[in-house]
Amino acid sequence: MPLSRKPLSLAVSLALSAMWAHAAAQEASPDTPLMTVIVVGSQPADVDLNSVTLDADALLPMRAATSDTAALLRDIPGVSVTGAGGVSSLPSIRGLADDRLRIKVDGMDLIAACPNHMNPALSYIDPTRVDSIKVYAGITPVSVGGDSIGGTILVESAKPLFAKPGEGVLTQGEFGAFYRSNGDAMGANLSATLAGENLSVTYTGSTAQSDNYTAGDDFKTTTATGRPGHTLPLDEVGSTAYKSINHALGFALRNDGHVFDLKLAHQKVPYENFPNQRMDMTDNTSNQVNLGYTGDYQWGTLKARVYHETTEHEMDFGDDKRFWYGSASNSPVPGTPCSPLGPSCAAGMPMDTEGKTTGMSVNAELPLSARDTLRVGTEFQAYRLDDWWTASGAMMWPGTFLNINDGQRDRYAVFGEWEAKINPQWTSLLGLRHETVRMDAGDVTGYKTALATAPMPGMDVGSQIADAAAFNALDRDTTDRNWDLTALARYEPNTTHAYEIGVAQKTRSPNLYERYTWSSWTMAAVMNNFVGDGNGYVGNLDLEPEVARTLSFAADWHDAGKKSWGVRVAPYYTHVQDYIDATCNTASCPDDQFNVLKYVNQSARLLGVDLSGHFLAARSAAYGDFTVRGVVNYTRGENRDTGDKLYNIMPLNAKLALTQKRGRLTNTLEGQFVAAKNDVSDIRNEIETAGYSLFNLRSSYEWKQVRLDVGIDNLFDKGYALPLGGAYVGQGTTMSINGVPWGIAVPGPGRSFYAGLNVKF
What we know:
Layout: H1 2-28, E1 51-54, H2 56-63, E2 79-82, E3 90-93, E4 96-97, E5 102-105, E6 108-109, E7 130-136, E8 152-157, E9 170-180, E10 185-195, E11 199-210, E12 242-255, E13 258-272, E14 280-297, E15 300-316, E16 351-367, E17 372-389, E18 401-421, E19 426-440, H3 461-472, E20 478-494, E21 497-508, H4 512-516, H5 522-525, E22 536-538, E23 546-558, E24 566-584, E25 596-620, E26 624-639, E27 653-662, E28 665-674, E29 692-702, E30 706-713, E31 752-760
Parallel strand pairs: 5-8, 22-25
Antiparallel strand pairs: 1-7, 2-3, 3-4, 5-6, 7-8, 9-10, 9-31, 10-11, 11-12, 12-13, 13-14, 14-15, 15-16, 16-17, 17-18, 18-19, 19-20, 20-21, 21-23, 23-24, 24-25, 25-26, 26-27, 27-28, 28-29, 29-30, 30-31
């Protein structure tokens, strides 16, 4: 599609030419006064050009525009967002997503407890509660890595506040609210702190909800209908509504360089629908206890943390996915409750999951000398999972389908890391990490345990019985011993240049769903899918851990003060041994339809480059400062065994933003340019998407204690498909593997006006 690539090519050309032209001009006139500009919220860390930190000031403008914490990462080089529910998108770093990333929230490693990964780690913290995000997109130090082959994302809520000596009692708080027109989304948040010099107590709460959103102009979704009398408008994207409620209570105690913090969190999601899954979340209740300690000693710093999280997760068909068996003549009157034993209707397909995660970490940082710093630590995590589906309707009765029974996944890790400032120009980092991962699961059964009890051929009772018997006869206890190694060198010859090169080996063991889902029955297999492609998946007990070996380079050119302009380029190459991909689980997998696949180990490679930059375009006493930011990302992923493309790789994309800042007023015009996605996974029958260009307007104004954010997303109401949104199965007879039309990608949201107000007190 040539037309779809022109805006992208033009944008990239303009961005690069402008960046380099300005860089050359600065060397000719070094004394020209310029404003401070920071790439995507902050400068890279001193040790690692491949890490980016977003602080509270950088996050503030994004909070009114989204209720999805993963969406806060969308402007970071190398990062894209994989579509899911309205508060549960999955970040992808250089083509690796979900469990292939290390994601920590307030020091906790949280695990999705759902066969569709509807409750990933970042869904457990609302954007209004996030105070900082640090992303390692390149070589990840072993002290923040482990059990992952992609990057690392560290999300932190606000640090505890204490009163100054002699100040008495400190009281402060904040209230906020937002509204977004597309989907009639609205929400509110509240925080309040009461603190003395040594004791601090903070409460934070938030709620957000939205109806189904509408697609852009002239973008028609599908003519599929749900239950009788429930036909969606063609521009409405089914199964995109959600509601989320979050509460957190924090305590902190400090004394002579020692700080203890205790966080208690509760989340309730009454419903969250998923346009690329055959099920919807009908309830998710999570409780967290998180206790931490930080102590400063003469020999260094000691940090320790212990946490426990429980999740009770329920799925079923939402309204957009309810359907009736039989002909129209014997379907009940619209609105009539479904009888569980009725011959022509299914009351639903209830699916329940319980997850429990207990973790502990202890690490120390020891400055050995002015040159050398040593970091050592140990981590432990115990994860328990039960996933069962209660019988519903005559076709499933009388048994309960045990998808994963008594699933166990325990991790034991130790690491050591040595950082050396060899001289003012050179810094090195060497790290070694070992993890033992033990996994097991109990016996399973299907809905039916005898052929005579099957009322309908669609139940495929024979395969349920045979698959369960074969699974139960196998030894399911496995132990993986995994090694990570990182070697990183940074060279900064002068105040305007910095270079970094690194190599790493990273290892990830399969998750419980990749190893222990056992049924090849179509109806069960399509419910085990956390990639949103509409296919069904069967686990594999013989899976080996993924081992990724990465070579990464980064170069940064900037002005001497690192404030006025900068250009950063970061190419990378990753080879993955035993990459967990998929193969056909039956004799053949026809094109242009959904199929049942099986997880297998194969070989893969990913390569690409991230480019970003910023510069001052103009300065005026009357109109303020005008700055330009640009980000370009390119990733290519290939299965080396089959020649197939890897699934859900973001195509070439770029963002350009022109920002005006005058006093307390900030205005931004942003353009997003995405090329057509033609390199797709054949085995998954991945859907191609066309290229597109989107434009957004954002404005904010700050008073002393009040901040107002307004904006328009998708300014011209462009109709487009999400490149990483997966297959649209958001309405209709989703229980059948081909009950919804194949070949429809999830449409992106159309124009949305939004406004957010925050008041500090």
